[in-house]
TrEMBL record:
InterPro entries: Aldolase_TIM, OxRdtase_FMN_N, Oye-like. This is N-ethylmaleimide reductase. It holds the Pfam family Oxidored_FMN. Signal peptide: none annotated.
Length: 377
């Protein structure tokens, strides 16, 4: 399938302009954001339904998958996919092949749960472990429903260093599975974020917050290890400075994230994926400090991002691409809908996380356009 370009005219939008992301030619500047959907097999293997889901959405310039655990130690929930075994690699290879056959590009998001999780939701049946023994605040998805979060263990130094190695090993498996790159999940309460935040990192060793460098150490080591394993041009990072979701506390995010970007700026990463927050304008503060490609997400903790909101981000020079989450769930052909100014379908909230096709792959695409709204090249 050729790359799909949209004609100029009354429906033209910069969101649909092609973009060059390192070695990758993206058909537009719209990114499908990572979203947990709980559709993997119980052992973490993605099946044919997962391949169908992502292939339906290959009209995005770039897809970032749901969070994938790099090792069983990082499994945060039941039916969340993994990238630890040969079976996982085979499952994901079918997904990437389906996306590429539809003309899309796809990065795997590696998501180590850290403190997030529950023995009932983990293949190993063990307690999750994070930087410190600080419990989460949200119920955990387990077979049969949700349960209160447990008190996690504090990771030993050896476990912290193993987590760095696990991310690098999973990144190599992602490339073997056909992914175009890897996004490390440093946002929304997962392990990298737990080391950065005030209330989840109470360590007194070299990974602790006694110094700014200690607070940043795990993030920097993990990004560097993955970049060395698969190349910086295939390595990306997502951050959510100041995001209070899931009980995270960051009283003054600016110094932390400015320093982190300074550490990573020279690595030549594929991109930085940055969420904005009403309490800390991360895009305005950090965009001038990052010379590489930047993906903006402006819908976190807010209403779903509209076409107009995405256009404003690009017009203001705050990002090169814009990620959309909820809109891509119920509108697999979202770029086409933006091109035709078509209405958006609502999300089936009752089936966001239920097994099967309902609320997952059963959202219809638009009927083919009668006029020359677009052309393939």
């Amino acid at each position: 399938m050729g790359v799909r370009f949209y004609r100029t005219g009354m429906n033209a939008t910069p969101l649909l302009e092609p973009y060059r992301l390192g070695p990758l030619a993206l058909r537009n500047r719209m990114v499908m954001a990572p979203m947990t959907r709980y559709r993997a097999e119980e052992d973490g293997t993605p099946g044919p339904l997962v391949a169908e889901y992502y292939a339906q959405r290959a009209g995005a310039g770039l897809i970032v998958t749901e969070g994938i655990w790099p090792s069983r130690a990082g499994q945060s929930g039941w039916r969340i996919p993994g990238l630890e075994t040969d079976g996982h690699v085979r499952g994901w290879r079918a997904v990437t092949a389906a996306v590429h056959a539809s003309g899309g590009r796809v990065f795997a998001q590696l998501m180590h749960g850290g403190r997030n999780g529950h023995p009932l939701a983990r293949l190993a049946g063990d307690l999750p472990a994070g930087p410190s023994a600080v419990p989460g605040v949200e119920p955990v998805h387990v077979p049969g429903g949700k349960v209160p979060p447990p008190l996690p263990r504090a990771m030993s130094r050896a476990e912290v260093r193993a987590a760095v190695r696990d991310h690098a090993a999973a990144a190599r498996r992602a490339v073997a599975a056909g992914f175009d790159g890897v996004e490390l999940h440093g946002a929304n309460s997962y392990l990298i974020h737990q080391f950065l935040a005030d209330n989840t990192n109470l360590r007194t060793d070299e990974y602790g917050p006694a110094t700014l460098g200690g607070r940043l150490r795990f993030a920097v080591e993990t990004v560097a290890a993955v970049a060395e394993a698969i190349g910086p041009e295939r390595t990306a990072l997502r951050l959510s400075p100041g995001n209070p979701q899931f009980g995270m506390v960051e009283a003054d995010p600016a110094p932390v994230y400015r320093a982190l970007l300074a550490e990573l700026e020279g690595l030549g990463l594929a991109y930085l994926h940055l969420t904005d927050d009403d309490r800390y304008p991360a895009l305005a503060d950090l965009r001038p400090r990052w010379s590489g490609p930047l993906i903006a997400n402006v819908g976190e903790n807010r209403a779903p991002t509209t076409r107009e909101a995405g256009e404003a981000v690009l017009a203001d020079g705050l990002a090169d691409l814009v990620s959309y989450g909820r809109a891509f769930i119920s509108n697999p052909d979202l770029p086409e809908r933006f091109a035709r100014r078509a209405p958006l379908a609502p999300v089936d909230q009752a089936h966001l996380y239920t097994p099967g096709a309902r609320g997952y792959t059963d959202y219809p695409a638009l009927e083919p356009a009668r006029g020359p709204a677009s052309v393939s090249a």
